[in-house]
Amino acid sequence: MTETALALSFPPLMSGEAVTGLEDPFETACKRAVLGCDAGLVVYNLAPDTVRAALVFAPEVPLAQAMAMLPTCGVGFQNALGALAPPEVAVHLEWNGAIRTNGARCGTLRAAASTADPAEVPDWLVIGLELPLWPADGDGGDSPDQTALYAEGCADVEAPALIESWARHCLHWINRWEEEGAKHLHADWRELAHGIGEPVQEGGLSGTFLGIDEAFGMLLRDDETTHLIPLTELLETP
Hints:
The chain is 26% helix and 27% strand. It is an alpha+beta fold. The chain folds into 2 domains: 3-194, BirA Bifunctional Protein, domain 2 (2-Layer Sandwich), CATH 3.30.930; 197-230, SH3 type barrels (Roll). Strand 10 (218-221) and strand 11 (226-229) form a beta hairpin. Helix 3 crosses helix 4 and helix 3 (69-84) crosses helix 5 (183-192). It is globular, with a radius of gyration of 17 Å.
């Protein structure tokens, strides 16, 4: 059995579907969601150079609240890698879904949903994860601000184990969010957040990243006012 055909193990209420070659798990997960697959489906591609996976949700709350699954899956990823990588490897999360490892960008999270209306309860929501294992240039990365997992002391972290761990930790945080609300998720995400208090550009605006509101919207302060950029601005068209 080749590595790309490995069947991974997921916790109860989750199931897995492997795709191979150039097939994008995020796009495949969106297609499965449109067709009415069960929530908890994890679609993954075990390519030798990149970790790619996507998780399907069936929200029961309006999209504005359901988008909390993006930072939820970000915290889940940090927990997952933290359980597998050496303790000196630092992971931080950008508001827009980008992942930073030891300070440099190293992959991203993305989101798509059946609707873009923040007030509407979506039929489905998909969160995707993409993480380079090897630098594109075969050395340290394309630029000082870009890196890859195996260039950061994580050569012993195997892609199958990372995807399984990500799913488990995401489920843990999903359950906490459903049972306890967003308080603990807020606290953990803020500890991992990159760029708070620093100048950023987002949504066509420039200013200082002050933090987030209760729905994880970005608070961006320019010379005149504070702007609120909702997480729904990050949605991709499936």
